[in-house]
Amino acid sequence: MSIVAEDSQVISKTKELCAQIVSDPTFLKLQAQVERFLGDDAARLQYQSVHERGEELHHKQHAGIELGAVEIREFEAARDALFANEIARDFLTAQRELEGLQKEIGKYVSSTIENGRVPTADDLVESGGGCCGGHGGGGCGC
């Protein structure tokens, strides 16, 4: 039987982990914050506008074009207004925490597969936790 077969112990335990995640009160709160944001057109448009403007400014700067004081102030004002919007702010916090959860679980799994054992705290610090395990390989663009 394959280690990734639907009825393997590895997949069974993975499903248990998934069930634990989706029943965790903190996860449920974060998920609700994301859903609240997705259901609020004004907050989504505000976020999209700030995000797109930030990308524009980044590309200009990366191309060697000096940013004007006015466009920087306008962007900062729009960003401050976004952070003042409770729905958008909660979404950004939830997004950051959910990405952190995904990254942390990935570090454990990657380290386990790379080292052939359950990782210790030292293993996780040493590996850097990236897709390359901190070793610069792995074909993920590191």
Description of the structure:
- The protein has one domain.
- The chain is 73% helix and 0% strand.
- The protein is built from six helices and no strands.
- The C terminus is likely disordered.
Provide the low-confidence segments as ranges.
129-142
Order of helices and strands: HHHHHH
Shape: elongated
Given the helix and strand composition, which structural class is it? mainly alpha
Query: What is the number of strand segments?
Result: 0
Overall mean pLDDT stands at 90
Oligomeric state as shown: single chain
Our estimate of the beta-strand percent is: under 5%
Per DSSP, the total helix count is 6
> What share of the residues lie within helices?
over 70%
Distance between the termini: 33 Å
What's the Cα radius of gyration?
20 Å
| Total separate domains | 1
How many strands, what sense, and barrel or not for the largest sheet?
none
Task: Describe, in short, the structure shown.
This is YlbF family regulator. The protein has six helices and no strands.
Key terms:
142 residues; mainly alpha; 6 helices; elongated
Give the topology, please.
Blueprint: H1 9-23, H2 25-38, H3 41-62, H4 69-84, H5 86-115, H6 121-127
Helix pairs in contact: 2-5, 3-4
